[in-house]
Design brief:
mainly alpha, Herpes Virus-1, 2 domains, 3 strands, binds zinc ion
Length: 272
Amino acid sequence: MARSRPSSTSTALHAAQRSIDSSDKYRASVTKLHAHSKMIADFLSPDGRLDKSLEPSSDPDAAQFIEGCKRRLKDIAEGNAKRMKEIDVFVSAVTNVKNEMMQKNSGGENQEEEAVDYEAAIHTAMEQIRNNTNTNQDLSNHPMVIEVKTALGEKIQQDDDLEIIHNSTSDSNAYKCPITGMLFEQPVRNKICGHTYSSAGLSQLLKNKKKSCPIPGCTMNYLAMNMVEEDEEMKMKVKRFKKREEMERKKREMEEDMGEEEMGEGGFTLIQ
Ligand SMILES: [Zn+2]
């Protein structure tokens, strides 16, 4: 879209659709880069070929060299993760602008077409989405980064056990869908704003005329099925939460059964 000559709405709509369509191509090229990174990571892992031929355990220079390669590879993985996120941001921005155009357009057929700088509108939308994106969406937890680290033979830190200890009196609201009000079922995360909903809740929302993220304060004013991905982390959290609840229920039942005077502190363990 040229800045000098603002395009008509229909031309702009077509251009927007073309941009959205071509995003798959960009995604595919990042995915290819990522596949190569994983292959190299395999090669660098403790039982990989490079490690075997260089013998870093007896040669400090070789060890340093391999460490350097690993660091570089992890940087590349983070770069790929970032590219993927930028593509998502771009597609959402174009989709937002496109929907606004269509809404304005549906006002009347013979409405006078105003000259709009769509390029600027897309930039503004991208800025808005970036500002709105959950800052705790740390790239070090991005699946692409995790996959490369795993291929490198690094142990991925699991916070499961820690969380069970620290979070044993957790608030069940943290595991409830803001739409259905029930514990998350098949949770999906909005790739742009980072908010999570149950699949059923999202379907419900998508039936509304005005589709926007229902989280208070979120300015994501468009929602579509292809904007979400499965929220594996939330799935696991809900599973753990249910398990904790179950354990507490069992404990209470046992306490009732045994009578209070027989209950010593830590009298029995509940670990199966
Ligand atoms: Zn949101």
